[in-house]
Amino acid sequence: MSQQIPVERISDLEFIRPPEIAEPDCRRSSELRRLNLNESLQPPSPNAISAMTEALASAESYPDHSCAALAALLASRTGISADRISFGNGSGELLSQAATLAMEVGDEAVFPVPTFPVCIKGVHIAGGKVIEVPVDSDGVNNVDAMLEAVTPKTRLFYLCTPNNPTGGAIGAPGLLKAIEKVPDDCLLLIDEAYHEFAKAEGSPEVLSLLKARNGPWAVTRSFSKAYCLAGMRVGYAITSSNKLCQAFWKLRGNFNVNRVALAGAVAAMKDEAYLQSTLKTLIHQRNRLAEGLQNLGFEIFPSQANFLTVKTPRKASALASHLAKYGLLVQSMPWPGGFGSLRVTIGDAHDVDQLLRHLGEILTG
Ligand SMILES: *Cc1c(COP(=O)(O)O)cnc(C)c1O
């Protein structure tokens, strides 16, 4: 019998892809407020913009595949040597690589649900089996229940802290339990796309807790969120050993981090003042939004990220459609049952005012 092309596990893949907003002229629409993608609603640091502008003038030339400048900067900030850091076209690419390098066909991977779906897609590509464990009532990964789901076939254990789409970060006791109890033949993968926000609010330092782990681990982070560079696509993975890091590197496409992105990431990281002001504004607006939504009868999931998820007192999809009429795009979800929930990216003061105004209209009008 002839081989089916594409092979079954690839043709069976679901089309999981980000919400699409067409940009026929390659420009962001000025009418839409995209509060549905957890990207930044403010531009990158002016220093990053000038570094990227300068890099554009060398666009004819391939970038530095080793990402040496960024690697050195990250090594000095984290205390982890540069030979344990790999780079991706966004951290999503690294999440998929983690499944590829850790799993054989038929192996198992444990995930919280709901969570960010990119690594799950990687497991399907690898031919692995996804074991889903509901988050706790605060929307935080339920580490105890996830550990109970581990079997001798588990090769990947994925934590997302703060978790997308709920917003809550795992406390130090939960992290330590995972660090100690996830078996040594299983990759502990910690997705810290919202690291900078969580750190600003005193969440545990995942990297220092990981010193207690004997087995393999990787932490992924992104320039898409706190550094306001989602359009540039840069992420990195910090790994437990040079050997594991090399496996990530082997899976990299050639020159997967482009020259402009690299220049932007380095300059953004060096502009600590801009990062701090981004974080401060964001936390302030998130608190305003949380308070306003609570007053309107929404139930808040605690968030240490750049978005807020709330259980809605009316059908979530209807509320999202109402907001869309005013150009405010938010993400509605059927989870966790009932009327579902809305995930709202934190924008500026005006966005928060508009959200509260238009939700108030429909709920009290
Ligand atoms: C946004 C996000 C990412 C990845 O983003 P990249 O733009 O690919 O770096 C990864 N994980 C989570 C949980 C996210 O929310």
Strand content: 15-25%
Q: Number of folding domains?
A: 2
Percentage of residues in helical conformation: 25-40%
Give the total of beta strands.
13
Classified in CATH, the superfamily of the largest domain is Type I PLP-dependent aspartate aminotransferase-like (Major domain)
- Rounded mean pLDDT is 96
What is the chain-wise order of helices and strands? HEHHEHEHEHEHEHHEEHHHEEHEEEH
Low-confidence stretches: none
The CATH architecture designation of the largest domain is 3-Layer(aba) Sandwich
Structural class: alpha/beta
CATH class of the largest domain: Alpha Beta
Oligomer: single chain
Provide an overview of this structure:
With 365 residues, the protein is α/β, with parallel strands linked by helices. It has two domains: 108 residues, Aspartate Aminotransferase, domain 1 (Alpha-Beta Complex); 225 residues, Aspartate Aminotransferase, domain 2 (3-Layer(aba) Sandwich). The strands form three sheets. Strands 2-8-7-6-5-3-4 form a seven-stranded mixed sheet, with helices on both faces. A four-stranded antiparallel sheet has the order 9-10-13-12, with helices on one face. It has a two-stranded parallel ribbon with strand order 1-11. Helix 2 packs antiparallel against helix 11 and helix 4 packs parallel to helix 5. The radius of gyration is 21 Å and the shape is globular. The structure holds pyridoxal-5'-phosphate (PLP). The site of pyridoxal-5'-phosphate (PLP) has 13 residues, from helix 4.
